[in-house]
Amino acid sequence: MGKKITLSVIKADVGGFVGHSSVHPELLETARGILGGSSLLIDFHVTHVGDDINLIMTHELGRNCGEIHQMAWDTFLSCTTVAKKMKLYGAGQDLLSDAFSGNIKGMGPGVAEMEFVERKSEPVIIFMADKTEPGAWNFPVYKMFADPFNTIGLVIDPNMHQGFDFEIRDLIDNRKVTFSCPEEIYDMLVFIGAPGRYCIKSVYKKGTDEIAATSTTQRLNLMAGRYVGKDDPVLIVRCQSGLPAVGEALEPFTNPHIVSGWMRGSHHGPLMPVSLKDSNPTRFDGPPRVVGLGFQLADGKLHGPQDFFDDPGYDLARQKANEIANYLRTMGPFEPHRLHLDEMEYTTMPDVMKRLKDRFEKLD
Ligand code: 13P
Ligand code: 13P
Ligand code: MG
Ligand code: MG
pTM of the entire structure? Predict the structure, then answer.
């Protein structure tokens, strides 16, 4: 067996430019400078979607490697210093602690990592979203790996026909469960249809530990116990040769499904597929958006990116997303544009209720 490569994507929002719309180029340069000077990495690519910095890194040190996590943490700290100097918005927003404790998980930044032996050809896609939450991937990942109307390979490719195992995380009770699909899709949909709580963490080739996809699944607001911005998740998908073709992995995004996280993390909106240059959410701080970058890996080298949604093939999806956005916006402060009370990232309800409590009269 060949040697294992680890692909680590670690992301954080350490200050928006301007507001919550984008990342200042100086922060990206700072991150590139630090990763470029590291002897731990085989290769890296620093990018952003909206106001979130994404460190895409390859190495041979495995998942949950303390040194890699430390370097990512230090990189975000240095970027925060630059952000504070410029008084960028929410500088240091996602760094929940002052001190690094060995593993970046649970400290604010999002982490998606996979370890595998490179195949003869290793196409991967890194999906990165802004103004939404980890559960936003449930719908597209289900479509990619379990829906034959999306992925014809499930029907006609002998290497895919057996299906996939889905690891689901319960973000509230902090537990996991694995479903074997297609046999258990009805059971699985009971859970993943509730993306605010149950998220697809990873997908494996059926009955093996061969990783096919993995995502960031932390919920910042649960970790911090207060509103600290949305989690703006990342998803890594390996493609081809017994896994979804690149086009099958991209296809779910032609239907802009509705996700939570728009404006103040408290509204529903359509997830719009966009190119990197269009990845800065401005309209009502949105609508939520997703970028898909393709890389061919070769001995850990990242050849790319290919900016997949920079394609007129997604123009209609974008138009539909804008129409859905227009329609939802007409509802203003009403649900279901506004999130349900339990899901609001912040609210004036307790204060207003306290002030008005004597005006409420009991009814028999
Ligand atoms: P593979 O079986 O090599 O992944 O090819 C499938 C394909 O690319 C169809 O679009
Ligand atoms: P971010 O989570 O992307 O920082 O956005 C927060 C927000 O409140 C946007 O309106
Ligand atoms: Mg922000
Ligand atoms: Mg963001």
Answer: 0.94
